[in-house]
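Exercise 7. Given the encoded structure of a 348-residue chain, write a plausible sequence.
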């Protein structure tokens, strides 16, 4: 039986067992280490291997039943390769965001992160820092404030004395009582509200409170739903680009890849601008407005240059579609925010 027939019929076991028998050495004092033979067939589908990956299912030809040293080397190699992908992707994302899209569309994908994975990574970091900053501001606002003695005396003078009659709520100029709900869905109070208006008024009172006492909790819930809204708006932005460049022979997936990259750039640049603003506020407050203006202008110009480099049109058409697309997408964001607010109110 030939070697090729033995490989096919008997599999890895026969090939590993073939050859010269192992030499007997000292069992207890000097035991020779056996080198694990390389895999010949895929452990997942059984196909004959011809490289590091299976040509049928794509599973890597890695045998984990080896020494711990080999396993650590494989893990470090995968981690360092992934780390180099992050560095290369973030570097191009901050300096030349159009480079990522052009490279991905040209087929050079192995050296960069996947656009969807990049978007999820950057958006999670952005909204996590945004929620953390919002809670820090709320925590600082709850700290006790020291009043001067004069303010304390004046506030004590305004407090009712024991046994005195408490003030009665008086109607304002419109004839409404002051302690009535301040948030209403309908504008005309004389007509009977519809079923939808009554339901909305009930949800507003439950979520926000009659006098807005639960507004902070509602805003926090709304902030938690914003990542899902933005993730849903990315395909809509790609659809806007598809309409603007309908005469360009590009698939919708090409516009979607650019949309993921440009949103990742927007999140990253927003984080950098916010960090620079907070730093300058502490060390050089006078330079903060000029630095913010310069950074925001640079970010907008980067988006403008990316549109021109990706879609390869003249400056006039690029500027026209940049402003038209920006206005349309701003309307889409407003509609998405309204829908997210409604869903946040409707959810229990």
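Solution.
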């Amino acid at each position: 039986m030939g070697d090729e027939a033995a490989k096919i019929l008997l599999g890895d076991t026969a090939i590993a067992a073939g050859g010269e028998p192992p030499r007997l050495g000292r069992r207890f004092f000097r035991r020779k280490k056996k080198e694990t033979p390389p895999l010949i067939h895929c452990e997942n589908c059984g196909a004959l291997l011809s490289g590091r990956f299976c040509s049928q299912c794509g599973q890597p030809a890695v045998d984990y039943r080896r020494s711990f040293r080999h396993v650590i080397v494989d893990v470090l190699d995968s981690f360092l390769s992934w780390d180099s992908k992050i560095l290369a992707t973030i570097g191009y994302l901050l300096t030349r965001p159009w480079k990522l899209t052009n490279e991905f569309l040209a087929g050079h994908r192995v050296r960069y992160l996947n656009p969807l994975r990049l978007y999820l990574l950057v958006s999670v970091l952005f909204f996590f820092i945004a929620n953390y900053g919002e809670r820090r501001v709320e925590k600082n606002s709850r700290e006790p404030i020291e009043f001067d003695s004069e303010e304390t005396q004046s506030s004590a003078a305004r407090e009712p004395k024991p046994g005195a009659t408490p003030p009665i709520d008086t109607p304002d100029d419109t004839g409404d009582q002051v302690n009535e709900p301040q948030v209403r869905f309908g504008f005309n109070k004389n007509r009977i509200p519809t079923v939808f208006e009554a339901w909305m008024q009930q949800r507003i009172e439950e979520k926000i409170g009659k006098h807005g006492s639960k507004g902070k909790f509602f805003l926090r819930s709304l902030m938690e739903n914003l990542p899902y809204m933005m993730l849903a708006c990315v395909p809509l932005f790609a659809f806007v680009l598809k309409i603007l460049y309908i005469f360009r022979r590009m698939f919708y997936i090409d516009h979607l890849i650019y949309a993921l990259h440009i949103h990742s750039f927007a999140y990253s640049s927003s984080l950098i601008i916010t960090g620079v603003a907070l730093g300058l506020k502490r060390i050089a407050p006078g330079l903060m407005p000029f630095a913010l203006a310069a950074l925001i202008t640079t970010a907008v110009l980067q988006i403008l240059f990316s549109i021109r480099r990706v879609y390869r049109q003249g400056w006039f058409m690029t500027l026209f579609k940049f402003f038209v697309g920006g206005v349309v997408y701003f309307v889409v964001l407003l509609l998405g925010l309204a829908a997210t607010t409604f869903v946040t109110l409707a959810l229990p």
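Remark. The chain has ten helices and no strands. Students should compare their own answers with the one above.
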